[in-house]
Amino acid sequence: MSPLTLVERARLWARSDPEAAHRAALSTLIEAGEEERLRELFDPPLRFGTAGLRGKMGPGPGRMNRALVRRVSVSLARNFRPSDGIGRVVVGGDARHGSAEFVDDVCRAFATEGWTVERFDGPVPTPLVAYGVLRLAAHLGVVITASHNPPEYNGYKVYGGDGVQILPDVADSVAAVFDALDETPALATGGGTIQSAGPAIRDHYLEAIQAGLHAPELPRDLRVVYTALHGVGGDLMMRALAPYAELRVSPVEAQFEPDPDFPTVRFPNPEEKGALDLALAQAEREGAELILANDPDADRLAVAVRDGDGKMRPLNGNELGVLLADYLLECAATEPRRNLVMTTVVSSRLLSKLAEARHAVYDECLTGFKWIAHAAREREQRDGLRFLFGYEEALGYTVGTTVRDKDGIGTALHLLELASREKAHGRTLLDRLDDIHRRHGWHRSRLLTLELPGSEGAARIEAIMQRLRQHPPESLAGRKLSDCIDYAPGHAGLPPSNLLAFTLAQNGRLLARPSGTEPKIKFYLELWSHEEPPAQLDEQLLRVADALREEVA
């Protein structure tokens, strides 16, 4: 039997699409013969990437919509159906366009398949769902979120029973069930039930993250500006900070309530230029010492601190990561078990030096927090290690095992504890960061990102990666490139990945990879030195970045 044509697939999808507007849109494209537009909606279909499914809203399997959500949910329910009883799934979502409807469809799909559904009432931060999987001993967790993507996106993230995001082999088995569905399944009551996960989960989560602090009684005499960036983290963050009477927290009111249009920012990503402008302005008006920012689903944390010139300086992901790691390793130095710290291959090499100096175990994995959490679980069970901390340079951090994923709220408490301790000694976070660099060398990193949307953009990204593989530049700003490592076939025990790593002469490196969540290609640059001052390294890093931008233009 010959495979279906694109138009036949579009007709088949439209026939059972539960959204009338999407049925009409597909029918119009089919009748008008708009095959190029149809191909954008169907090929390729959305697949689990760095952090679940994520895509623009619209009809067809290449977009986020109710038909896709129902099919994925039924596929998950059938693939993970326990052989010895009724499955339990925890479901939550953010406040994006479509999230409430998608959460409802997830719950009904699992119930139709006979599962018990623990549903969060209203929008919730992603870390709370990840925690709920462990707390409620569920078989699965599903959270509807597109994290920090623009307003037209939504997404679907899945946790296994261990609280860790599912890995590619599991995602592939789910995709096989999905591909075998000829139609979007009808949803009925089935043999399952849908019940509220209950407000007690929030209380248990707050108790758990506060119990992990090293000095919970420490006064936090700090002036802090906080922004939720129009996301869902505001209420839970303020509850987490409420016990500390000396902490003066001032929310950015214009960004505190969830708003799926993200009206005050171009991109609701605290890494993006301009995203923290309102928080920075408020910090200047109020004389704040720190800025804390969550991304819209509150699994990331961004921080800015006042520097020696009195200006607020955002910390990049590597700086915040090594600050937290250094502090946590110091606090755990007297504990008998061997401590494990982890990061990704694209993050700074500084963490490995910190771990060695603190007699801790260091490990690294591919980009994506699922790899950190999975490897941590494996090393705990196999080697008897104690997972202390993990981070990725894209502002993702987790402390301990309360949440087996990024946690922008729990991490904020540890960061405030560290800042409070430093202030008690007349110091700032930047003073501690300088101490780290003096001990282990000045490490400066920079991320260069090219946004290339659409099918043409995807083709260009692939062309850039192939050119770097086959004909890399001999040098960038006078620094020779050598020792290319291609992770495509796998490397050093890591799974295959579309990632290239080059050595830059005079203590540097360059890594390149397409984003797994956005239409972007990312280049990670790092230089380090014991002798050269940081300002000089920054200048050199900028020249290398400019040369790279010209090379790939």
SSE arrangement:
Elements: H1 6-15, H2 20-31, H3 35-42, E1 53-56, H4 66-79, E2 88-93, H5 99-112, E3 116-119, H6 126-135, E4 140-144, E5 153-160, H7 168-179, E6 193-196, H8 200-211, E7 223-227, H9 234-241, E8 248-251, H10 277-286, E9 290-294, E10 301-306, E11 312-314, H11 317-331, E12 339-344, H12 350-357, E13 361-365, H13 369-383, E14 386-392, E15 396-399, H14 410-424, H15 429-440, E16 442-451, H16 454-470, E17 475-476, E18 479-486, E19 500-504, E20 508-514, E21 520-529, H17 534-552
Parallel strand pairs: 2-3, 2-4, 3-6, 7-8, 7-9, 12-13, 12-14
Antiparallel strand pairs: 1-5, 4-5, 9-10, 10-11, 14-15, 16-21, 17-18, 18-19, 19-20, 20-21
Features:
553 residues; Alpha-D-Glucose-1,6-Bisphosphate, Chain A, domain 3; 4 domains
Task: Report on the architecture of this protein.
The protein is of the alpha/beta class and 553 residues long. It has four domains: 193 residues, Alpha-D-Glucose-1,6-Bisphosphate, Chain A, domain 3 (3-Layer(aba) Sandwich); 94 residues, Alpha-D-Glucose-1,6-Bisphosphate, Chain A, domain 3 (3-Layer(aba) Sandwich); 124 residues, 3-Layer(aba) Sandwich (Alpha-D-Glucose-1,6-Bisphosphate, Chain A, domain 3), CATH 3.40.120.10; 111 residues, TATA-Binding Protein (2-Layer Sandwich), CATH 3.30.310. Helices cover 38% and strands 21% of the residues. The protein contains 17 helices and 21 strands. Strand 14 and strand 15 form a beta hairpin. Helix 4 runs parallel beside helix 5, helix 4 crosses helix 7 and helix 11 packs parallel to helix 12. The mean pLDDT is 94.
